[in-house]
Amino acid sequence: MTDAGPFPGGTDAVGAFLTHLQKERDVSPHTIRAYGRDLEEFTRHLVSYYGNGSWTWQGVDRLAVRGFLAHLTRRGIGKRSIARALSAVRSLYRFLHLTEIVDANPARAVGTPRRERYLPKYLDRAQADALFAAAESAAASGRFAAVRNLAMLELFYSTGIRLSELRGLNRADVDLLSQMVKVRGKGRKERIVPVGDHAVRALRTYDGARDAVIRGAAIRGAASPPDRLAVFLNARGQRLSVRGVQTVITRALAGVGEDAGLSVHSLRHTFATHLLDAGADLRAVQELLGHASVGTTQIYTHTSVDRLKQVYRKAHPRAM
């Protein structure tokens, strides 16, 4: 195999690769944008690494890839972001190999940086109780926003779904009779997640409020017709935006721990932690969360063990 081909070097190969991800692999727009940024920087690194002379994708070796990772480290880029950049380079080279532009993947021989393990922020039981007590009190007013916000909080905590997954829910995805919800996760993978009684009650109440908003928008003759497919709507009858969900949930979480560093994702962490604390099987939690690897789910066992250690130190007479 030679360097001859449509992508001897430069950004043409990157553009073709990103188009391949979008049209043939159905990769999420967020991942494509992230890979695009990483590969743009990788290309700039190769221009600098090989000097002013010409270079080709075929001619890139593992030392050049390692040099790229070292460059990112010097810039202070975190290990998670560096690992993602390496994944982007590996995926690009798999594409170049399939299209017969290169003979081998130089990134395969480069080790992935060991990522930092961290304990995710989550709500303890008292904080969770306070969160839902405040949301239920607000929803008792019958105001659309308060009723919707309670339904979102209950669904987040009941299912552990991601923000993007909740925002993308359509009415056909939610079956309140069987208490199940169909979720489209990363990589467009679908999974079925059970919904608890509290969330079902909140969703039934919200369903009536949602229908009223849609009727009102239709009567007013809004510029944009109401979204009859989406589950969660704004006051104008349109699908609630990611920023809208973030604003609502962040404000609610601030009421139980303003300085606790809680975020929308903390509800997902809370879901997993409380399940494992109650003795749930790790593999079952993995499936509920939609994790491709059980290793990703294991971080929550560390959270549970950390909590148990704290209880032990406080309660055992000879622990300290």
Summarize the structure.
The protein has 13 helices and three strands; from the N terminus they run αααααααβββαααααα.
Biggest sheet overview: 3 strands, antiparallel
CATH classification class of the largest domain: Mainly Alpha
CATH topology of the largest domain: hpI Integrase, Chain A
Q: Please give the count of helices.
A: 13
How many separate domains make up the residues? 2
- Assign the CATH architecture of the largest domain: Orthogonal Bundle
| Nearest-integer average pLDDT | 87
Q: How far is the N terminus from the C terminus?
A: 67 Å
Number of strands: 3
Keywords:
320 residues; disordered N terminus; 4% strand; mainly alpha; DNA polymerase, domain 1; 58% helix; 3-stranded antiparallel beta sheet; hpI Integrase, Chain A; 13 helices
Please, could you describe this protein's structure?
The protein is mainly alpha-helical and 320 residues long. Helices cover 58% and strands 4% of the residues. Strands 1-2-3 form a three-stranded antiparallel sheet, with no helix packed on it. A hairpin with a 4-residue loop joins strand 1 and strand 2. The longest helix has 24 residues. It is globular, with a radius of gyration of 24 Å. The N terminus is likely disordered.
